UniProtKB/TrEMBL annotation:
Transmembrane segments: none
Family recorded in the similarity comment: Belongs to the pseudouridine synthase RsuA family.
Molecular function in Gene Ontology: RNA binding; rRNA pseudouridine synthase activity
Enzyme's top EC category: isomerase
Occurrences of domain RNA-binding S4 (ranges): 7-66
Entry's Gene Ontology BP terms: enzyme-directed rRNA pseudouridine synthesis
InterPro entries assigned to the protein according to its UniProt record, in alphabetical order: PsdUridine_s_RsuA/RluB/E/F_cat, PsdUridine_synth_cat_dom_sf, PsdUridine_synth_RsuA/RluA, PsdUridine_synth_RsuA/RluB/E/F, PsdUridine_synth_RsuA/RluB_CS, RsuA_PseudoU_synthase, S4_RNA-bd, S4_RNA-bd_sf
Identification of the protein by name: Pseudouridine synthase
Pfam families registered for this protein in UniProt: PseudoU_synth_2 (PF00849), S4 (PF01479)
Keyword annotations from UniProtKB, A to Z: Isomerase, RNA-binding
Organism (species): Candidatus Chromulinivorax destructor
EC number from the UniProt entry: 5.4.99.-
Length: 261
């Protein structure tokens, strides 16, 4: 925001990393927001760089947006704080950024792989929302062989307690029957583990090797990098119900995993 530009109040609060734009809209409507000490209840009120905005009496300072692609290691949980003192995903960035980063979506504690960390509430809300159908690719490794019929059932659909679920793609990336790659756009909790458990594989190892077209090439477990401006722009281009696919990149990721297998 430059000194002369103006921005809608709900957007300003979301951009500051305080919360999503939708939550900001509710806070404004509920009378929790003030501009220069005056209560404002219209979410689209324009804010200037020189205005002082407070939400529930907390001053809001617009902060630089940070977008990190992390290859999450095992034994790290995707919450901001854990009451049992287990290692959290934000612990991995302790002392690195002054901005408060949080993950877009979640991976289980024992799942490794790609997750985006950001302070951009708008992008978080967008990518985490089921209507944007962000494709996620997982490599599943089982102790026992995974039958072809399991793959077929995954593609046809499996009844789970919270509804019928099918994957977008599934197949063996190598000659091993113990490894299966799946592409799924659902972000429901434990979705891949629940599908495999239902089909007789309760103890799988899970690694997310592609998220929204981004791959973990050159990113070893535990490593992270900043997203490029182009990558962030591409993430913002997800349209409702339309997959923005990057087949070249995804095929590269598949080959990379086939080599590892
Ligand atoms: N599905 C799962 O079961 N676990 C994850 O961590 C991600 C997707």
């Amino acid at each position: 925001m430059t000194t002369n530009s103006e921005i809608a109040l709900n957007k300003y609060i979301a951009h500051a990393g305080y919360c999503s734009r939708r939550v900001a809209t509710d806070l404004i409507k509920n009378g929790k927001v003030r501009i220069n000490g005056i209560q404002v209840k219209t979410p689209f009120t324009l804010v200037k760089a020189t205005d002082l905005v407070t939400v529930e009496n907390n001053p809001i300072t617009p902060e630089k947006k940070i977008y990190i692609l992390l290859n999450k290691p095992k034994n790290v949980i995707c919450t901001v704080a854990d009451e049992n003192n287990r290692k959290t995903i934000t612990d991995l960035f302790a002392g690195v950024f002054k901005e408060r980063l949080y993950p877009i979506g979640r991976l289980d504690r024992s799942t490794t792989g790609l997750i985006i960390m950001t302070n951009d509430g708008d992008l978080t809300q967008r990518l985490a929302h089921p209507k944007y159908e962000v494709p996620k690719m997982y490599q599943v490794t089982s102790e026992t062989s995974i039958a072809k019929s399991v793959i077929e059932t995954l593609l046809q659909g499996v009844p789970l307690e919270d509804g019928f679920m099918k994957v977008d793609e599934a197949g063996y990336p190598t000659s091993s029957k113990k490894i299966v790659n799946v592409t799924i756009h659902s972000g429901k909790n434990h979705i891949v583990r629940r599908l495999f458990e239902e089909l007789g594989h309760p103890d799988i190892k899970l690694d997310r090797f592609s998220y929204a077209g981004l791959t973990k090439e050159k990113l070893r477990t535990g490593e992270w990098r900043h997203l490029t401006t182009q990558e962030v722009a591409a993430l913002y281009q997800y349209e409702e119900k339309e997959l923005v696919k990057e087949p070249k990149k995804i095929n590269r990721a598949k080959k990379y995993y086939a080599r590892l297998g």
